[in-house]
Specification:
single chain; 99 residues; 2 strands; elongated
C-alpha cells in the first residue's frame, strides 16, 4: 500500500505546485490590469491566454464588477486557496494513512 501512498503524495504535491503557480499568475494579471502593458508582449499575452478562460467563466456567471473594479481574480484566488486546503490536504492525509 505504500506505493499508492507515495502516488497520492506525489499527485498532491504536483497539484499544490500547479495551484500555487496559477495563483501567482492570477496576481500578476491583476497587477498588469493596473498599468497599460503592451498587448503584443509575449509575457503579457501568455498571462492573458492562461487566465482569461477562468476569469471569463467567473465574470459570465457572477456580477463581479463594482465601480469599474473586477473582483473575479479575488474569487479565483479564494477558489485556489479552498482547493489547496481541501483537495490537496486530503490527498496528503490519504497518502500518509496508506504508508
Amino acid at each position: 500500500m505504500f506505493i499508492a501512498g507515495n502516488l497520492f503524495g506525489a499527485v498532491a504535491l504536483l497539484l499544490h505546485y500547479a495551484l500555487t503557480f496559477y495563483m501567482y499568475v492570477i496576481i500578476a494579471r491583476a497587477i498588469l490590469s493596473w498599468v497599460s502593458p503592451d498587448p503584443y508582449n509575449p509575457v503579457v499575452r501568455f498571462i492573458s491566454n492562461i487566465t482569461e478562460p477562468v476569469l471569463h467563466q467567473i465574470r459570465k456567471r457572477l456580477p463581479v464588477t463594482a465601480g469599474g473594479i473586477d473582483f473575479s481574480p479575488i474569487i479565483v484566488i479564494f477558489v485556489i486557496i479552498f482547493l489547496q486546503r481541501f483537495i490537496v490536504q486530503s490527498l496528503f492525509d490519504l497518502s500518509q494513512t496508506l504508508k
